[in-house]
Amino acid sequence: MSPRRFAPLLLLALAACDGEKKETPPTPAVEPTGPVGTATPSLSAAQRLTGPQYRAAIRDLFGAEVVVPPALEPDVPLEGFDAVGSSKSTISARGIEQYESASYAIGNQVVADPKLLGRVLSCKPSGLDDAACAKTFATSTGRRVWRRPLTNEEADKIATVITTSAKTLGTFEKGLAYGVAALLQSPSFLYRPSVGEPDAASASGKRYTQWELATRLSFFLWNSVPDDALLDAAQAGTLGSYEGVKAQVDRMLASPKAREGLRNFVTEWLRLGELDRLEKDAKLFTTYTPDLGPVAREETLRVFEDLVFDKNEDFRDVLTTRKTFVTPKLASMYQIAAPSPTGFAAVELPADSPRRGLLGHVSILALYAHPTSSSATLRGKFVREKLLCQTIPAPPVNVNTALPEPTATAKTLRDRVQIHFQNPTCAACHKIMDPIGLGLEQFDGIGRLRSKENGAVIDPTGQLDGVEFAGPATLAAAIHDHRDFAPCIARKVYLYATGFAPQEAEEATITALSERFAAAGYRMKSLLAAMATSPSFRALGAPH
Amino acid sequence: MVTVGLPFLEIFARERRANAAPDSFPKRFGMFFWGNGVLPDYWVPKGTGTSWELSPTLAPLAESKAKISVVSGMKVPIANAVPHLSGPIGFFSGSPALATDKEAFAAPTIDQIIANVIGTDSRFRSLEVGVQPGVKGMSYNGPRSLNPAESSPAALFNRVFGAEFVMPGSDAKPNPALALRKSVLDAVTGDAKRLQGLLGSTDKQRLEQHLDGVRALEQRIKKLEESPPSLAACKMPTAPKDSYPDVDGRPPMSEISRAMSDLLALTLACDQTRVFSLWFTQPVNNTLFAGAPAGHHQLTHDEASPQPEVAKILVQIMTELAYFLKALDAIPEGDGTLLDHCGILATSDVNYGRAHTLDDFPIVIAGSANGALKTGVHYRSPAAENTSKVALTLARAMGLSLDSFGAEEGKTTSGLSAIEV
Predict the structure, then answer these.
(1) Does the pLDDT value for residue A12 go beyond 50?
(2) I need a surface site. Which of A249, A503, B30, B327 has the fewest CB within 10 A?
(3) What is the DSSP letter of A13?
């Protein structure tokens, strides 16, 4: 039934062109389960909520109707992830102002709309100074906003803010808005403290508390706050065992919120947020418009979401698939008929197209390029760092880095970058990057297909760590099968989930995660579940 | 502190300044930063001392020549481990990078060191603004503690001159909500302090930064209840555009910069802050400048010598610096102008963009800081002196009594006497 059975015949038939090569992992009869990794944790920190996490939290706490002001403290990536940066970054004075302003904007919206208010206020206040109703609100909403029960003192404090404000401003609702603001401005909302409790079983002697673990799970898988069911599980203490965590994780991965979580992981991993600020010379690239970046990002995110949740197939196939989702605009850039007159729709690129998978998306091709041209080095660096987890050292100082202009005998970028390979100081790093990017040179600075540059035919052949490729399709297959690719995905998930670069003692867990990923046919849901249910994830490491 | 051979007049002048009557106008400190360095052959002026010519890159500053000084030949003292970042780290903080992360500042930057002393009573302790859309800047309170720049002129306008602006000379409006906001901040402070007691030292520090921000906000609210004395030069600026979209894929850098410059000039004239930094572009930025055939960073590396397109971009950047300085100089303050009361450090992240060098660092100092700095001078260091000397001079010119600036190989105990009055 699977067309993959015919792959060897196809390969022979298309031997003259850049054909496809696919390896099918053994389909597991039973999904492998059981805990993965040791109980050796990563470092710990009070991670700051990122911008997208703040917005998702407000949506989940108060409703999608609430408009969150656009200006919030910017996120700072570390190790390529905002999630890792959030372990270390602080909130600036301007950020404090922005969160204050946002908290009132949100509080005022919630109390002004009876439907929204009804979701968070269960009692009917008897008057402006109804301390009991104020405390009920503080207790129930506080539990959700701070992701733990408030102490008596904390609830009283918030209740006092509410009643004092109510009396000053004239209505109980207006007072409630200040209560919401107080909850949202507090570090108990804006950070995820990791204090923990003793645990003899963990390598560090400590584990996250049930509440902290609920938060850790929901931010990893949903990029948002725990829902009531997860908070209840924490309250009941069921998150202490593999089985208890797995039950929640399975539920969470089946929720639509897991798609948001995956989208956020992919956006951070591939730096797709920078597509909002794509700068391309519109005179050179006449099809470029300012909305191209965000539209291109959406294509890539849909492909990942479809592969992981709707198909639940080999994650590596994101590189080799011909299936994607396009708007009419993207369809015209890919030179195919638009599958639908408006919006995104599924499409399969023709077999004779050199374009394959992620490295054929406008998103990656445009982002890892220059404003006025393609870039073999930036694209090669992308593959090495983001897909194979290999670091490229910084360029040496005092080096003449000029690239010769095109000449009559050196028309293409391939010709012009030869200088990178002639100088041994440059070649050391450039021979690791440039050949990969040169394999993608048929795609210009915004990802459109071309066969020639300056009148000369582009040569997209090369080799990747000993594997020859004839063009973008076989390059994609070479990365797909590269022994470092799948383990790199596991490593990226680990970084994202824990918020830290791993220390030596954590490598055993990363190796175990890679093995589980392979055993599960490289299904991302299995990797996510393995990470979330790993004993290392529950153990609380030393503060950073 | 006294070195052999120092003319007596200068020693006397220094002491006299220490005992002088307070200035009738406050001193302001600022930074103007652009990424990707300069072309040394086009940057370094010919001639030194008081007879020198503006170089081709500096030519746009002609009208302000008497009020600027150029310092050349200085070297950033720390190891050049990370191109484009080691320069700012070594210069602006005077200290090496974090041992565990050579891309990270380990110490506060000079603007915050100064703001800690002269900014504590202002409505805004400091203001960080930018021109390149999304530029974050490099104003640090300490490791990992960035003060991100505001790159939307409209947002800056709202922040400074919006609903919470009290025109100097007018009466503050009573507002019952202010006390309520303060009560919320009290609760927030209590929450932060409780958390600090439970966390490790690094997170304690991070929450201390958070509390600093809360205190700054409380300071701002306090200002809302005060009626500030009138200032002749203060007036409401015209509101800038809501947004400055790209034109044919190129950000309108000049238009944005001028909007920011005009706002910043009035922000200072209205004494809303005394410390600012203007981040024109980020290190490594690949901005498509007007008329350029490629992004700035790409050109610094790929364009063949003598890199005429890079030279054109640098002239565009210096033209915007000139506009900013003229905007400050157009505001009368007492017998002088706002620019006379400023000490502004204009610099980049490297010297030669193509080679990422840290020697012969490009430095312009604008304004005399109420007579504490010499202007109209080109000082060329004969001995690759430490750029920390410039930072120390500027800090002292702002009134800080510092024995030294910087740490380890970046540390200096002497300023640059050539530009000190």
Answers:
(1) no
(2) A503
(3) H
Q: Are A303 and A355 in contact (CB under 8 A)?
A: no
- A161 vs B148, B184, B202: nearest CB: B184
**Are the beta carbons of A89 and B82 separated by less than 8 Å?**
no
| A416 touching chain B per CB within 8 A | no
CB atoms within 10 A of CB A32: 16
Question: Mean pLDDT throughout A314-339?
Answer: 97
Q: Can you give the pLDDT at residue A205? A: 93
A368 touches chain B (CB under 8 A): no
Domain boundaries, chain B: 8-159+249-419
Q: Which architecture characterizes domain B8-159+249-419 according to CATH?
A: 3-Layer(aba) Sandwich (3.40)
Who's near A483: CB < 8 A, 6+ residues apart?
none
Identity of the residue numbered A449: L
Alpha-helical (H) ranges within B270-375 are: 296-302, 308-329
Measure in Å the smallest separation between the Cα of A290 and chain B Cα atoms. 7
Show the DSSP H helices in A186-241 as ranges: 187-190, 210-221, 228-236
**Residue A191 DSSP one-character state:** E
Closest CB to A92 among B213, B220, B355: B213
Taking only the tens place, the pLDDT of each residue in A145-159 is 999 999 999 999 999
Chain segment A431-464, per-residue pLDDT in tens: 999 999 999 999 999 999 999 999 999 999 999 9
Task: Tell me if A398 and B192 make a contact (CB, 8 A cut-off).
Answer: no
> Is A178:A165 a contact under the CB 8 Å cutoff?
yes
Contact B200 A401 (CB under 8 A): no
Contact list in B for residue A405 (CB cut-off 8 A) is 304
Q: Pick the closest to residue A175 from B187, B221, B189, B177 (CA basis).
A: B177
pTM of this structure: 0.93
Record: contact B82-A394, CB cut-off 8 A: yes
Residue B31, SS3 per DSSP: strand
Closest residue to B294, CB basis, from A97, A161, A373: A373
